[in-house]
Amino acid sequence: PEGKSVQRLITMAEHNDITILAGLFEKDRDNKLYNTYVCVNKYGLVASHRKIHPFISRFLSPGNNYTVFEINGWKCGILICYDNNIIENVRATKLLGADIIFMPHVTMCTPSERPGAGFVDPELWKNRVNDPTTLRLEFEGMKGRAWLMKWLPARAYDNNIYAIFSNPVGMDDEQLKNGYSMIIDPFGDIIAECRSFDDCISTATIIPEKLLKSGGYRYINARRPELYKNILGKEHLSNQQVAWLNNKS
Fold this sequence. Notes:
10 helices
């Protein structure tokens, strides 16, 4: 909480009388590094979440806790990027009380074994004013938004939450990212979305009544954890080399 970045965010929150969430790299008192997302208001640090699955870098340590806190009477959680792809993390955060989950990402437009995946040519970004159509087709296709639509609305719908998804647009080092930050309601419907090539802000009104009417509300109440609580906690074998499992720091 006493770090310079957090203190600067608190000053900004106090000046504008708002709550701010922001990502940063955190170094703890043992010099371990974490990919961290913080929530602050004018009174100070509200919450801090360390990414549970920091798969990109062996220099980052994993967080080991879920994060649930309150903003203006709403129970909220944070899951960073790949944390959201592990479906147990979203359900666990919901079961701990979160009705809103903030989902900061840096994703899409990267290669994988998934059909249609791959980088988007940076030249298209440089030529976006003269030819926005080709870039838009790449951004909205299977390299980008179409892949996101395969799973992100389901996280909101199945878990009866508002999902607050953020993602950068433009060049991120040598990779091009396509944005499409959005707010998804408990019905899995997009109620706000940033579709501009420029930095932009999108807002939405969220209402608690939707949390009582969505399918996810019924599904969660119909759970029978006695059938699968031991199954969900079972160890599994994997031949995948995962950075955070090999990090002994």
